[in-house]
Amino acid sequence: MADAAPRVPVTLDGRRVLVRSGTSVAAALLEQGHWNFRVNRVSGQGRGPYCGMGVCLECEVTVNERTHVRACLERVCEGMRIGTGTAEEEGT
User: Fold this and answer.
1) For residue 28, what pLDDT band results from cuts at 50, 70 and 90?
2) Which SS3 state, helix, strand or coil, does residue 82 take?
3) pLDDT tens by residue, 38-62
4) Phi and psi dihedrals of 28, rounded to 5?
5) Closest CA to 82 of 13, 19, 31
6) Is-contact 7 28, C-beta < 8 A?
7) Domains present along the chain, CATH in parentheses
8) Is residue 81 packed enough to be buried (19+ CB in 10 Å), middle (13-18) or exposed (0-12)?
């Protein structure tokens, strides 16, 4: 099956990447090899998608300066700025 969705540029943790337009932010992050979307403040463990339908809140990211966005529900669009809040983003 052909990949019909055009790829659009987004910024992921400060890096420009091309992802499929209209896909969920969660799917786009997973496609880029990001399994940890955030870090648990108490345990320090990486967290990522769990339920895939916006109930568990484990996939929260920052999108265009909006915090606590559920990546599984948000759709990718051109120019979007996505921050995961992981150690990779913070440079540690």
Assistant:
1) very high
2) strand
3) 888 899 888 889 888 889 889 999 9
4) -65, -40
5) 13
6) no
7) 7-90 (3.10.20.740)
8) middle
CA 18 to the chain's CA centroid:
13
DSSP 88: H
Phi and psi, residue 4, nearest 5°: -80, -30
pLDDT (0 to 100) of residue 52: 84
For the question of whether the overall pTM of this predicted structure is more than 0.90, the answer is no
pLDDT reported for residue 53? 87
Cα dihedral sign for 72, 87, 31, 50? negative
Please, what's the b/e burial string for 26-53 (b: 16 or more CB within 10 A of its CB; e: otherwise)?
bbbbbeeebebbbbeeeeeebbbbeeee
* Tokens standing for residue 55: 């109930």
76, exposed or middle or buried, with CB in 10 Å at 0-12, 13-18, 19+?
buried
User: What value does the mean pLDDT take over residues 68-85?
Assistant: 95
